[in-house]
Specification:
Blueprint lengths: L2 H13 L4 H27 L5 H6 L8 H13 L4 H33 L5 H13 L3 H13 L7 H8 L2 H14 L2 H9 L4 H12 L1 H17 L2 H6 L8 H10 L16 H21 L1 H9 L6
Helix pairs in contact: 4-15, 5-8, 5-9, 5-12, 5-14, 6-9, 9-12, 10-11, 12-16, 14-15
Length: 304
């Protein structure tokens, strides 16, 4: 090899971009994610194992004792004569009841928009899309006025009926039926004498299980975590769902509200445990429905 070739090879090696920099950038991003997302979750899981004083004094990521977890559990569910249990039960009733109505309305509506032709179909689809992209806070006032007009404020229906209004679910079902349901199968069923209801209930609905599961999951999670609407329409603490109840629990914690009663046993460990208990149903649902969620997300991605 000549000296010129050796020189060019050396120059190329020097100007070759270093692979160290991308690894440093990725490592820095992962460190930031760990700092801002993972560490708070770890702290939340460990806080119920310590007393209020230990939470302040000890290492934030240290574990206290299982005895303290049991004590925090006892204090939490003794708050206001078992208010936490009532709030969890109310959330289950509101979310479960509205989920049934959501599926009963969203699935047939999405099927009708995708596979039937009627006057005003495109207009209805546009209204569904516009409503879907609107922030939920913009609809709270008209929904409140409508509920008040029918004297539903403070009743169970003031939460279940608005929760059942789920245009995103209608659009998901519309996308699935419009792109993945074989038209030849429906045509053959019509030749065999199936009615439109039989086409929907015996052919379309069984094939749509993945997207129905996806709609059910998103609807349940959204209803369970909803705070603003129940906070406005439910004046009685006995009717609160768990998300609104957490707000009342927070205002009863002396660490966050100095005017709260000093004799209460609700402190930072009890509040952290309440948050864990509130998110546990959604977490369990997510763990046991991952396969359905993946199938639902892939549904409609390709046309048979």
């Amino acid at each position: 090899m000549t000296q010129t070739a050796l020189f060019l090879t050396a120059v190329r090696r020097r100007v070759r971009p270093s692979r160290t920099l991308p690894f440093l950038v990725v490592g820095l991003l992962l460190a930031l994610l760990l700092l801002f997302f993972v560490l708070p979750v770890i702290w939340l899981l460990l806080a119920p194992s310590k007393t209020a004083g230990e939470v302040v004094r000890d290492n934030p990521l240290s574990f206290g004792s299982f005895h303290q977890i049991a004590t925090a559990w006892q204090h939490l569910f003794a708050f206001q004569d078992g208010a936490m249990t009532r709030w969890l039960r109310n959330s289950a009733i509101y979310s479960g009841g509205s989920l049934i109505l959501t599926l009963a309305v969203s699935v047939p509506a999405g099927y009708a928009l995708a596979l039937t032709k009627f006057r005003g179909r495109k207009t209805l689809l546009v209204i569904t899309l516009v409503t879907m992209i609107m922030p939920q806070a913009t609809l709270v006032l008209p929904i409140f006025l409508e509920l008040n007009r029918f004297h539903l404020i403070g009743t169970i229906w003031s939460v279940i009926l608005p929760f059942s209004f789920y245009p995103f679910g209608v659009y998901l079902v519309y996308i699935y039926f419009g792109s993945s349901l074989p038209r030849d199968l429906l045509f053959a069923a019509r030749i065999d004498g199936c009615t439109e209801w039989q086409l929907f209930s015996r052919i379309a609905l069984p094939l749509a299980k993945p997207v129905v599961g996806l709609v059910a999951f998103f609807s349940f999670v959204g209803n369970w975590n909803n705070f603003f609407l129940p906070y406005l329409v439910l004046p009685n603490s006995e009717q609160f769902p768990v998300q609104v109840g957490l707000n009342q629990l927070l205002t009863s914690t002396p660490s966050f509200n100095p005017v709260a009663g000093a004799g209460l046993n609700v402190t930072i460990p009890e509040l952290a445990l309440a948050i864990i208990v509130a998110i546990l149903p959604v977490l369990v649902l997510f763990v046991f429905s991952q396969r359905t969620l993946v199938s639902g997300m892939l549904a409609g991605s390709s046309k048979e």
